[in-house]
Amino acid sequence: MIYRYWDQTELDRQMSARSTVPDIMPFVQAYARESALMRATLPCKLNVAYGPSEPERMDIFPARTADAPIFVFLHGGYWRLLDSADSSFMAKTFVEAGAVCVAVNYALAPSVSLDEIVRQCRASIAYVWHHAQEFGGDRARIHVCGSSAGGHLVGMMLAPDWQADYGLPPDCIQSACALSGLFDLEPVQLSNVNEWMKLDAEAAKRLSPLQHLPSAPVPLIVSYAPNETEEFKRQSEIYASACVAKSCAVEVVLEPGTNHYDLPLRLMDRASALTRVTLKIMGL
Questions:
Q1: How many domains does the chain have?
Q2: Along the chain (284 residues), what's the average pLDDT of each consecutive run of 10 residues?
């Protein structure tokens, strides 16, 4: 057995989100189409640099009033796909609810390591915190959301002991939402995903949110689709339980009828359970 009670073939299947749908392209196309509509119809600041390299940029959809909470979205794509241009499909919903919406871009594997991806996302949070007033945001009310690989990155944003390096307070993130995330990277390192992630055992431990839980209670939403693989479901459940043990207020929100790829699209619908709970913990 390679991991738990699975051989290599089964572990690779368990770590494959693609195996849960016939074709991912309709969903990827929906991300891009709906995000392009947001850029075309809403006031926005595009490709705002938060770091020195080209991928370190974000699209910002300012709030309509001052001192608004800030919704920051970290996209998925197994750390090797997608872009901020695919990641603002929920902007209208959140701007109309009274928030700033920020879609973050970061460099992709295998051109950079996961350590560098995490560093870039932390730098993006620092930029948002330091520049919040410029786009109508309240830096004391930053909410971070991410799907799949972005869910993992949410966990790494909630990890302790990095904030001071960026001039941030430990509680710079006030609430978070992790959708279909990966929080224990041991099975990632042992699976065919490691063909592009290039993790060794030490890196898998260093970059596993389950090993770096929030040091202070933070409101957290965890969600995953009903047809996820057993391992994807387990990852969300163990992370939620571990955060509860750290006194975080955790709400598991399940959206019937969704899959791994269309679950984040529920953030476009203000009436969906996921959006309603997210807006609630943001104070909207």
A1: 1
A2: 96 97 98 98 98 98 96 98 98 98 98 98 98 97 98 98 98 98 98 97 98 96 98 98 98 97 98 98 97
d(CA 284, CA 282): 6
pLDDT of residue 251: 98
Q: Does residue 20 belong to any structural domain of this protein? A: no
Instruction: Dump the DSSP string for 149-207.
Output: HHHHHHHHHH-SS-GGGGT--TT---EEEEES-----HHHHHSTTHHHH---HHHHHHT
Cα distances (Å, whole numbers) of residue 238 to 46, 206, 229, 242, 275 = 37, 17, 14, 6, 23
Residue 128 lies in a domain: yes
Residue 1's Cβ-count burial label (10 Å; 0-12, 13-18, 19+) is exposed
For the domain that residue 166 is a member of, what is the CATH number? Answer: 3.40.50.1820
**Domain extent for 116:** 8-15+44-281
Q: Is residue 21 assigned to a domain?
A: no
Query: Would you state the pLDDT for residue 147?
Result: 98
